[in-house]
Amino acid sequence: PPIEGVDVSATLGRNSYGKSGVRLMKVTRTPDRHEVRDVTVAIQFEGDFEAVHTSGDNQHVLPTDTMKNAVYALARRRPREEIESFARALVAHFFVDNPHVSRIAVDVMENGWERMSVGGWPHHHAFMRSGEEKRTASARGTRDGVAIEAGLADLVVMKTSGSGFSGFMRDGYTTLADTTDRIFATDIRANWSYGNVDVSYALCRARARQALLDAFAEHDSHSVQHTLYAMGEAALEAVPEMVEIRLTLPNRHHLLVDLERFGLDNQNEIFVPMAEPFGLIEGVVRRGGVRPTLSVMP
Amino acid sequence: PPIEGVDVSATLGRNSYGKSGVRLMKVTRTPDRHEVRDVTVAIQFEGDFEAVHTSGDNQHVLPTDTMKNAVYALARRRPREEIESFARALVAHFFVDNPHVSRIAVDVMENGWERMSVGGWPHHHAFMRSGEEKRTASARGTRDGVAIEAGLADLVVMKTSGSGFSGFMRDGYTTLADTTDRIFATDIRANWSYGNVDVSYALCRARARQALLDAFAEHDSHSVQHTLYAMGEAALEAVPEMVEIRLTLPNRHHLLVDLERFGLDNQNEIFVPMAEPFGLIEGVVRRGGVRPTLSVMP
Amino acid sequence: PPIEGVDVSATLGRNSYGKSGVRLMKVTRTPDRHEVRDVTVAIQFEGDFEAVHTSGDNQHVLPTDTMKNAVYALARRRPREEIESFARALVAHFFVDNPHVSRIAVDVMENGWERMSVGGWPHHHAFMRSGEEKRTASARGTRDGVAIEAGLADLVVMKTSGSGFSGFMRDGYTTLADTTDRIFATDIRANWSYGNVDVSYALCRARARQALLDAFAEHDSHSVQHTLYAMGEAALEAVPEMVEIRLTLPNRHHLLVDLERFGLDNQNEIFVPMAEPFGLIEGVVRRGGVRPTLSVMP
Amino acid sequence: PPIEGVDVSATLGRNSYGKSGVRLMKVTRTPDRHEVRDVTVAIQFEGDFEAVHTSGDNQHVLPTDTMKNAVYALARRRPREEIESFARALVAHFFVDNPHVSRIAVDVMENGWERMSVGGWPHHHAFMRSGEEKRTASARGTRDGVAIEAGLADLVVMKTSGSGFSGFMRDGYTTLADTTDRIFATDIRANWSYGNVDVSYALCRARARQALLDAFAEHDSHSVQHTLYAMGEAALEAVPEMVEIRLTLPNRHHLLVDLERFGLDNQNEIFVPMAEPFGLIEGVVRRGGVRPTLSVMP
Description:
Largest sheet of chain A: 8 strands, antiparallel
Structural class of chain A: alpha+beta
Radius of gyration of chain A: 24 Å
Strand content of chain A: 35-45%
Order of helices and strands of chain A: EEHHHEEEEHHEEEE
Oligomer: homotetramer
Number of helices of chain A: 5
Distance between the termini of chain A: 53 Å
Strand order of the largest sheet of chain A: 1-2-3-4-5-6-7-10
């Protein structure tokens, strides 16, 4: 129903399309041993896709099914490589024959598998899933260059000492008491960018991860924010190639159970882990005097 | 290990903190009948929180536990209202006593419950969950004003005719065949903004939802993008108060099963629904000549 | 390391194998309108499979991949039918050429889709998912006969009055107070058997479901157990063909929020829905003087 | 509507009630280091509960809320112990003051946390979740005794060689080809019983787990069933106290991608992991000449 003074014309704003959930298990076979890489890939295109939206003209649309096929073919063509390189290669591949595309985003998530040991020896071809921790990588490219982010997700950690929360602001709805000894449990999600795309991804990743874990364990925490910043600082110090890091730390609360009702004390021993609600703390820590730059495409 | 020429100083970038997963069931009791509202609330603060990160000074930090308490107290204080109003009220509440906060985001998600019928009559106090569809609302506020977004998520729809995909681009990895008759299944996620915060939220929502569903059902679809745009146009036409709408439409593929191997035909009758991979199509449709504006805070 | 007196010989006990998660979307096309059936099938065989386990001899093993193919072929061959009939037909099919199989279990789960309305008219080919409720059916067959169970799952219901829990047993760990007015929320899971396999499945299912819902809504509940029994009684009364019914009713607790701390009352208005922990109440209600019987195979 | 000849009387069949999802984090603090135990407990009672069902009389019903409280109190009272002992202690506790209860089932599931290392040293109080693998224990008790089962779940393993499937039965729907080299991936679920309740639970568990993993890795597999049996045999051999073991092994299929279409070979290198459908193989392996026995209650 047209209303006077209301413009009923519609225009297309930002839009993208692609394929998500492309599952790939890659087995590399050498006489000595097998290696496995278990990844999930997502690809998104942006560009001049006005006609497909407004008039149903598909002539510039590469099917998302083709994107999926390309993932498998490139995985076959390319030697063992880190997920950061694979993401970057996919971006480069898709720019070649898609003149209408101006931006490409590729996200890769890797599940970990550790080699089994049998009788004390690493096994040739048997593996065990190494937890819910994921390695992540993303490449965001334009015709001018590509930016790489590396990261990790679902790295679940906990410390049972060295964490307090006190001296905070109070209002009429504040019932929380000061504490100098609480459980601090979180699922670390970290994403960091490099100033240059040609870094040693595996080495940088290993250093970043260890720095994050060490800082979490060792920090005398006044709050989740306080530890988040210490973790970011530690990662920047351990990995000079890193420009900035974004940390997302849900606060997985553990409530002390009131056992006095049953004539028992509870000296920080018996807790209920709460799934909901949870605190959510997010922050970016950035290297002083440095700015992320897009490098030239390979 | 300090590297020559690498600045090891760290600075805090964008950061936020808050509480997520605050579950609330509100029962309104009148002699005639009960009404229920089942929502999940998330709150995030941004502001001057440098000291909490860098020196562990919590004096400006309102605990996220207090945010949770405020949700319950405000739910009690306020009469029956739409989730858009509740989100807006929470933003306004938190700005009052938190001078260090500059931005507040409140997201509310509502599960639907429909009243049961017994013997053909609506029941006084018994309800059934009405599917996985969620109503969503968000309020994003600064000291200058607040912007409201309404939306819906997990509205799962399918059409078994009126959808094709042909005439698309092909490269060396393209194996998909043209089709003029396929299943089109998706989970609609829609978010739209209003030019003014004082609209009739319930009425606008009902009109937007119906327009989206009607357009999905009736459109002669050449692609998911094509239908996405038609749905956006229809919503803008049905709700003059709407400024723009963002639609996210995963393409839930259904593969035709090859039954010729068993001497059977399969004239678009027997399909395998695939969970992975899935297409992912996203786009914004905007009213011509209008721009979103922040209104003055209530 | 053999220990004296310990028998180290191993023998095979009860075993089964099959295929689960077989997804099927079946579209039936008539000029008037399309109909859809969205099911997930699981099949398990028991029988004489000693050799496959102990010596790796596969000659009597029908691949689970073949079971999957048979689901699609039978779905194509058979006209529109209820999931109970489809489960039964699959059992019958697999007994024909598998002489080593002595027991077959087929479980079918159906997602609901409701036809969309456009402009007040039922649409020809557009559908909406009708919530998380599932229809279930299972057929358990031997060479002598088959037994059919029908059921439903994930039917989420709630009543905000007509439910109390008082006068219960107390011990030293009891802190719960009597209540005569609480929220009673549950996800109904029901499974019932028929004395005869040739009943009108659709009609019986509709009557059973309505009886369960009506009883839940109308019952003056002293406990979940109390209402479970009333629901079972009502179903047996509504469906004479039903022999017994098993109900599983998790008690989805809703905690009253203490608002007195903030100077507010809370007269059963503001609750926190708790995901964990939950009560779990399960029971069978059986028709007097009747016993389930295996009927002769079709 | 009463039908002639149909008995409309209802009787209560088997029934149970209890509490599930009781979450507990227990921290044991010594000067040297902290230890954590992260468990989820479920409790079910069976007994003479006719009156609660049929007449709403709650006088013999211990609230499930009390069961939850008892879990926390017993966790506080008892020193560090294995989950098998804790399950057994809970069964014994609940029999004391509940004369109407005849059977009690307690299930405990434990999440693993591994101690972090910082600078090569085990940390005093920082931990990392060690994957999705769970330890499980259950105690099933009557007034005459209790039986203990131990187990593990969600232990995700894969071997990329040493697995084939050939020489199987074929019918008209069989399209699967013989293979002598495929990926074998599964999530191990194992449950085993002891002939005596006073075994060394931790030692037996460690031996059972290692035997299962070694057998999986080393076995020359002709089928999932073949390896299941070998795993069961190995566990029985490694743990003389074990009477029988039940293994559930979903077959997580990995499909070889057809790359010939793109002029590429694929020598068992590039696979698609499939979530659905999946094979499901289950079997019991039992020690020769031994029968499970219920031991006298502690």
